[in-house]
Amino acid sequence: MNAGAPSARATVHGHCAEPGHGDNEGMAVAAIAFLLGSFVGSFLNVCIHRLPRNESVVHPPSRCYSCGTHVQWYDNLPIVSWLILRGRCRWCDAPFSIRYLLIELLVGAVTAAVAWLAFAPSHPWSALWADGAGLAWPWPQSIACASVLVLAYFLIVSVFTDLDHMIIPDELTKSMQVAAPFLAALTGANLAFGWLPIDLLMRIDGAGSRIATVGPFLTIAALSLVFLLASLPIAHRVYDRFCTGPMAWRKEDHQGFRAGVLWFVGAMVPPIVVVPMLIAWGDPWLQAVGVGLAQAVLGSLAGWLSLYVVGLLGTAAFKRNAMGFGDVKFLAPIGCFLGPVGVLYAFFAAAIVGTVVGIPMRLFHSKREIPFGPYLAIGAAIVLIWGVPLHHWLVGLVFGR
Ligand SMILES: [Zn+2]
Predict the structure, then answer these.
(1) What is the mean pLDDT of the chain?
(2) Which residue positions in the chain have pLDDT lower than 70?
(3) Distance 95 CA to ligand 1 centre (A)
(4) Torsion sign (Cα): 149, 150, 155, 156
(5) CB 290 within 8 A of CB 279
(6) Where are the domains of the chain?
(7) How many angstroms separate the alpha carbon of residue 68 from the centre of ligand 1?
(8) How far is the centre of ligand 1, averaged over its atoms, from the C-alpha of 10 (Å)?
(9) DSSP labels for 198-210?
(10) Could you give the CA distance from residue 121 to residue 13 in angstroms, rounded to a whole number?
């Protein structure tokens, strides 16, 4: 047994004894979350429409795309307005896509599900640090809920812009790469797999107390970033050599690629610097946040490097651009929340779902290319909800225990 898991489990049991966790309260939390979520869904509809077009998401207010009339607030209520107007403009009768309604329902449902999970008595999100910090219900649950919701909304906007335009907006992925390690550290979801990297950061001494040590973490993180920077000239050469003819890379492609890699390296530096500060000088609960932050960094690196290396090898093997660089940038923040083990599960789950869904779609109708981003988001959701039982089941299957 490792140093982290027993205390995590003990903390979880501690939560059970707290008040306010009955089924009725859970239902009430989920209902309120659905209502608030549907309003967020209304805003995410605007983001999905405008972000890929480089338009502001706050200005101007919504208009009918057909007659140009401003949509009044009472016609802009989530779900209800669409149903009352039967999906048409009040003034010119132009139809609005049913997708607006479906996304409001989806975001409401996802918000309710995340709130349900975050407030469930047995759920370990944030448990490792919250008790030590002296936070009582509902604060740790609310913080974990808010952090996971940021990830969920990021996934939803990314998936639908990816489906519409085959791109994930850069401003989204880039800001999430900066914010995700810190959000994920507060969530504690990435600690669910337990054994990594707690063993890298915490040792047990002879007397049974935990000793923090950051050497192995800093070594792995630094080596990964050095590897990434050193691979840049090689990556440029791979694209020049194997993407030829109409697929040939222009100067802007190379610049964008380099900027994307450098941004990610830069985004990893602050959390890497903060981890040893939290571990070395913090209270036990700050150390627990530090462990979560370290796990987020390693998860982000694992997510980025796995797709990046597979993409480069694939480009060389198939002699065409096999790397969806948008997907690489997309998987990095997901990795923060899932940790290095979880993000690899999400990658495999995405590949399996992509194969299962993709083959019949190919056979039956569409020649349309489906981006990998939506599958990655589904893989992330699967691991976030069922990752731990899945992990234990697989370990039992392979090692027979
Ligand atoms: Zn109209």
Answers:
(1) 85
(2) 1-22, 124, 193-212, 365-369, 401
(3) 8
(4) positive
(5) yes
(6) 4-19+123-137+168-399, 22-119
(7) 6
(8) 58
(9) HHHHEEE-TTS-E
(10) 8
